[in-house]
Amino acid sequence: MTFENPPREILTLKNLALWRDETLLCESINLTIAHKEKVAVIGHNGSGKTTLLETIAGLCPIKRGEIRLFGETTIDVKQIGYLLQESDDHFLAPIAEDDIAFSILARGGDRKYAAEKTAEILSTLDIEHLAKKVVYHLSGGEKKLVALAGVLAADPKLLLLDEPTTALDYDAQLRVANILQKLDIGMAIVSHDREFLESIAHRFYALTPQTLKRIDDYEAFITHSHDGMPPHIHSRAK
Ligand SMILES: Nc1ncnc2c1ncn2[C@@H]1O[C@H](COP(=O)(O)OP(=O)(O)OP(=O)(O)O)[C@@H](O)[C@H]1O
Ligand SMILES: [Mg+2]
């Protein structure tokens, strides 16, 4: 998928160093996500993908480099919809529909709008049957879908999705892919799910200790992903 006239930038990362506490995970990241652009970020377990999303969302400090959202270095996190890797970390209300509505109310929507929007997103994701359920009693896949409903219902201008299809059955994966394909907003999607990423992403990047490297596709990452790794890992991969 390509854009003939790349639209304006939503997110810009400039020479951003990625740190987790005292550990440097990536030296320097440069990335631009334009309006409507869906960018896939892949990488090994522990490479720092979640840390990258947390840094963009303001949950990890910036030690070097710059993040701009709509050209501003002061990030308005209300414009960001962030699906966390761990669904349990999402929930602020015990009942699913209340939790979804809360994410709308927290951004200034009134109760009537929140109720309508909640019903709409439950229907879109085909999870109306979960509306009255206690979120902590939901299955892993059900939690993921309710968490995603809360994120999408808040009408974000940028989506950060951390492993959105983990724990989802195949039908739910297709449903989520279909919804995301149709959403005309910028996205950074972290996933290990190749089929899912290839169905929605316009560009692919691999997170390495040096940089966020543009790759042609998932195949290119698998083929070259052990280049530059310590010899024992390199030989094990062959
Ligand atoms: N809260 C934390 N405190 C300390 N270290 C952490 C914390 N979260 C992650 N780390 C460490 O930071 C590194 C990067 O973790 P991160 O979760 O960003 O990786 P990831 O690329 O998302 O991995 P995965 O594919 O397994 O989700 C790992 O070595 C991890 O152990
Ligand atoms: Mg992660």
Name the structural class.
alpha/beta
- Examine the coordinates and then state which fold CATH places here, giving the name of the CATH topology: Rossmann fold
Q: How much strand?
A: 15-25%
What is the share of helical residues? 25-40%
Q: What hetero molecules are bound to the protein chains? A: adenosine-5'-triphosphate, magnesium ion
The appropriate CATH architecture is: 3-Layer(aba) Sandwich
Provide a count of the helices. 8
Structural domain tally: 1
Largest sheet: 6 strands, mixed
**Span between termini:** 31 Å
What does this structure look like?
The chain has about 240 residues and is an alpha/beta fold. It has a single domain, classed as Rossmann fold (3-Layer(aba) Sandwich), CATH 3.40.50.300. Helices cover about 35% and strands about 25% of the residues. It has helices at about 50-55, 95-105, 110-125, 140-155, 170-180, 195-200, 220-225, 230-235; strands spanning about 10-20, 25-35, 40, 65-70, 80-85, 160, 185-190, 205, 210-215. The strands form two sheets. A six-stranded mixed sheet has the order 5-6-7-3-8-9, sandwiched between helices. A three-stranded antiparallel sheet has the order 2-1-4, covered by helices on one side. α5 links the parallel β6 (about 160) and β7. α2 (about 95-105) packs parallel to α4 (about 140-155) and α3 (about 110-125) crosses α4. The longest helix is centred in the middle third of the chain and has 14 residues, at about 110-125. It is globular, with a radius of gyration of 18 Å. The two termini are about 30 Å apart. Mean pLDDT is about 90; it is low at about 230-238. Adenosine-5'-triphosphate binds near residues 43, 48, 51 and 85.
